[in-house]
């Protein structure tokens, strides 16, 4: 299972049909699906409206319909909770792609739209490619790396993976460490410099994955910023 966050800045969202949402909502948080199939997508959303606006102002947009208002603002909470039916092509694509879902917590905030997709690598790639055709995201990041993603000619080589697993099992990453580099190398029947190099390369790959996400979802054109 993988998870990818597509992010668009608020000002760029005005380039597509959902742009008018920014003149109605201050924030919006997806709470979960009420109904989801290839023909119908209905979700529960918590929204904060701009002054003078209310959720039914969203009905002017072709791609969403407010079907029900579950709760209204109070003195303690400025948000509405609504049932929203979505017709946007990206929402419908996500519903049609097997083994993929939009994660609760996806949100529109002061920075922009954070659209979080969870599913199999293939289903996520389809949704990412569809999103990029509609409006290229400002940022794409991935998480939820599984052991299968770390080996098999993916993030880590088989040797890097075996050295990393042995180091972890032997207490190399404990505080304080329970094994020296020399002893670890002896256990693996490898030279100290070889073990050190495998660990450094594996750690660098994992840190880059954590900080920058999975760049395999981006083609060379995207990476070059063209």
Fold and architecture overview:
The chain has 226 residues and is an alpha+beta fold. It has two domains: 2-143, no CATH class; 147-215, Arc Repressor Mutant, subunit A (Orthogonal Bundle). Helices cover 34% and strands 27% of the residues. The protein contains eight helices and nine strands. The protein has helices spanning 10-13, 89-96, 121-134, 147-150, 158-170, 181-188, 192-212, 220-223; strands spanning 2-9, 25-36, 41-49, 64-71, 80-86, 100-102, 107-108, 112-119, 139-143. Strands 1, 2, 3, 4, 5, 6, 7, 8 and 9 form a nine-stranded antiparallel sheet that branches. Mean pLDDT is 86; it is low at 217-226.
Task: Give a quick summary of the entry.
This protein has eight helices and nine strands.
What descriptive keywords fit this protein?
226 residues, alpha+beta, 2 domains, 8 helices, 34% helix
Poorly predicted runs: 217-226
Straight-line distance between termini? 30 Å
In total, the number of domains comes to: 2
Shape: elongated
List the helices and strands and how they pair.
Layout: E1 2-9, H1 10-13, E2 25-36, E3 41-49, E4 64-71, E5 80-86, H2 89-96, E6 100-102, E7 107-108, E8 112-119, H3 121-134, E9 139-143, H4 147-150, H5 158-170, H6 181-188, H7 192-212, H8 220-223
Antiparallel strand pairs: 1-8, 1-9, 2-3, 2-7, 3-5, 4-5, 6-8, 7-8
Helix pairs in contact: 5-7, 6-7
């Amino acid at each position: 299972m993988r998870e990818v966050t597509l992010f668009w800045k608020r000002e760029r969202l005005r380039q597509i049909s959902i742009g008018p949402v920014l003149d109605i909502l201050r924030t919006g948080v997806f709470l979960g699906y009420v109904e989801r199939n290839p023909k119908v997508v209905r979700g529960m959303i918590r929204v904060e409206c701009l002054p003078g606006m209310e959720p039914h102002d969203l009905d002017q947009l072709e791609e969403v319909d407010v079907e029900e208002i579950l709760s209204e603002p109070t003195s303690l909470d400025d948000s509405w909770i609504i049932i929203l039916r979505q017709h946007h092509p990206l929402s419908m694509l996500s519903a049609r792609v097997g083994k993929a879902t939009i994660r609760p917590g996806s949100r529109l905030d002061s920075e922009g739209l954070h659209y979080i997709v969870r599913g199999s690598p293939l289903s996520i790639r389809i949704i990412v490619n569809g999103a990029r055709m509609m409006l290229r995201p400002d940022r794409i990041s991935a998480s939820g790396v599984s052991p299968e993603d770390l080996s098999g000619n993916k993030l880590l080589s088989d040797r890097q993976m075996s050295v990393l697993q042995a180091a972890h099992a032997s207490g190399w990453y404990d505080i304080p460490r329970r094994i020296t580099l020399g002893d670890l190398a002896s256990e693996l029947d490898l030279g100290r410099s070889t073990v050190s190099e495998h660990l450094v390369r594996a750690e660098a790959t994992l840190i880059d994955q954590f900080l920058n996400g999975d760049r395999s979802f981006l083609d060379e054109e995207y990476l070059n910023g063209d």
